[in-house]
Amino acid sequence: MRSPRSVTTEIPGPNARSEMARGTFDMQHRYRAVVMDDLASTGVWLHDVDGNVFLDLFANFALGALGYNHPALLETARSPAFVAAAVNPSSTPFVTSPSWFDFLEGVARFAPRGMSRIFCVDGGGEGVESALKVAFIRHGERRRAAAGRPRNPLELGPEEQCAIMDNAGTDAVVVSFSGAFHGRGLGPMSATHSKLIHKADLPSFDWPTAIFPANRFPLDQHAEENARAEAESLAGLEQLLERYAGRVAAVLVEPVQSEGGDRHASPAFFRGVQALAQKAGAAFILDEVQTGMGMSGTYWAHEQLDLPTPPDMVCFGKKMQMGGFFAAPDYDVGQFGRMYQTRNGDRARALLGLTTLRTIESEGLLDNVRETGAHFLARLQDLATAFPTLVSEPRGRGFLLAFDLPTTALRDDFNARALRRGVFTSYTGIRSVRIRPHLITTRAHVDEAMAVLFEVAAEMTA
């Protein structure tokens, strides 16, 4: 079967430029690379308004799961329940409909092990922010209880209540890791350490940062170096937790540091982080906004870490079509008004998220991600072998794939050349190419994409 991939104009083309010119009222208009034809796009094929067709390995920064215009999603979007949820906004905690209970019953089957509650908001970064709030709430309640004071802040004396209302802060902190990205809110941004542009001129909480070990690849060639880096990282984390003893509300970490450059660590490292967090009495929070919903070959990437006990909270976003977190029983905050927003869960987006999870299951997409992802990684390793001065450190887990180029400029040139040939890759970190295929991507799609990446590498090294 002939591939639909075709690029016949410059990028962006004349129609795209015309459309972009209409969008300058949007503060973000300068970012745009493609204007898609979202009626024509289908499966892994992204069509633009100039008739160009790209093999999409970008998936809109991993938002996409089932490709474009998947029949199951279209069926959900056309259902009476979806239409009613979309046109009748509700304050979901107070007023909801049966479709919300359908979502709750359905999503509970896919929740990470040990999670007994879900808290929903609009986006992944907001979900991280909310999880941090819960960690601080529990930490404060426990500290007051240990001191023989009321857990409930409404039972505090008038002076303490006045101090709280006048912005009296807590000395509690969150420990995060170098290279992390957790979102754009001021709480998550204080735990973000990946790019200067994210943080410049913004106020931050004075929270400590541990060093992330960032494994080198291939793993077998860097075993001693990686083991040493992980041991040093854990020792440094332990020292931080001792320095802030009694004040650490949470330890926050990504199973794979995605925005920071697709940086990995071993399962043993994460087990060590969890053990240290537990010893410190801190919540162990996993940020799975990008790594969750099947990208790693399991529903949640931390399933591959062999944690002895479940994490305390797991944040989600992107492919779920909304954000939030799952919580273990100890982090179920039930006091009225303690955790509440007007819309804690968009009922229409929730139906799409549940359909996505069910389709991943019914179409066996986890198996596809594992098998096709392994093939993709092997081909990327072939690319690095063929062009060792240009391509290095191919790495991945499932469809969480990346490789490095020597400089930012070369990385950006590589992506631009691939796009002009109809393969849409992305960027991460300082010099890494990020690959985030839709979960329906097949071995044939991978081989077609790799033929293009080989062409690009050969052209750049000629």
Report on this model:
The chain has 462 residues and is of the alpha/beta class. It folds into three domains: 1-56, no CATH class; 81-361, Type I PLP-dependent aspartate aminotransferase-like (Major domain) (Aspartate Aminotransferase, domain 2, 3-Layer(aba) Sandwich), CATH 3.40.640.10; 366-417 and 455-462, Aspartate Aminotransferase, domain 1, CATH 3.90.1150. The protein contains 15 helices and 14 strands. The strands form three sheets. The chain has a seven-stranded mixed sheet with strand order 3-9-8-7-6-4-5. Helix 11 links the parallel strand 6 and strand 7 (283-287). Helix 4 runs antiparallel to helix 12. The longest helix is centred in the first third of the chain and has 23 residues, at 124-146. The two termini are 32 Å apart. The model has no long low-confidence stretch (mean pLDDT 96).
Topology:
Elements: H1 14-21, E1 45-47, E2 53-56, H2 59-62, H3 71-77, H4 80-87, H5 98-108, E3 117-121, H6 124-146, H7 158-165, E4 173-177, H8 186-190, H9 196-199, E5 209-210, H10 223-243, E6 248-253, H11 267-279, E7 283-287, E8 313-316, E9 323-327, H12 347-362, H13 365-386, E10 392-397, E11 400-404, H14 408-420, E12 423-424, E13 426-428, E14 432-435, H15 443-461
Parallel strand pairs: 2-12, 4-5, 4-6, 6-7, 7-8
Antiparallel strand pairs: 1-2, 3-9, 8-9, 10-11, 11-14, 13-14
Helix pairs in contact: 3-12, 4-12, 5-12, 10-11, 13-15
